[in-house]
Amino acid sequence: MIGILSLGHPAGASHNTAAQLHRFDRTPRDVVEFLATRRQRRSDTSFTIHSSKLIRPYDFVTVAGFRTTSATRTILDLANVQVHPDRISAAIDTAVRSQLSAPEAIARRVYDIRRRGRTGVRMIDRLLLDAGGHTMLEREFLRLMREGGLPRPTPQVVFRDGNRTVARVDFLYEEWDIVVEVSGKLGHSSPAERGRDAQRRNELQDLRLLVYEFTWEDITRRPSWVLGEMRQRLRAAGWPG
User: Burial letters for 82-101: b for 16+ Cβ neighbours within 10 Å, e otherwise?
Assistant: First the structure.
């Protein structure tokens, strides 16, 4: 807050500090950084201050009482200072999962700055190819489908029965009525969790959906097998690829 007040409007917390405030995955703690206009930048401070000519009013929001860069702007700023791509991927996925941004919103902002020679634009372009899921495993599945020449499913689709949510599925191939779920290393292991999973699967099957699941081991250790399984199932459902 001292930094925000001393810099004045429109400066605010940014980069890794903004990533902490937005609770992005894989963010280092206890880093204090700010974004300000070039005329606001000062040398008589221990804070890290980044300056930019490309500050727009919508680049700042208030989080926990602090003026900070929006999730979209934070992602672009992290890419601009060449943070590792894995961290940028995690930031995009967290922002999508938390509904703080969307791949389309990030792409529009990238379009706005592309001609200004900003570093990191190509990295964002590449990472947006497999964006839309909520986790790194979902991103890996999308990448696998893309590189394997298979159609891209729609991520994070919600099925409802009236006002009741039946399920939010990881991926849907709507044209072929195929649902794909991916599960992490731990998965659901308790009896209650397994019971909910079974009920959820049954309700999806009642909607005449084919439900398939791949584990972290499948996607990361047996990608060729996953591709073969998906190719076979999509063709059986009518995909002409």
Answer: ebeeebbbbbbbbbbeeebb
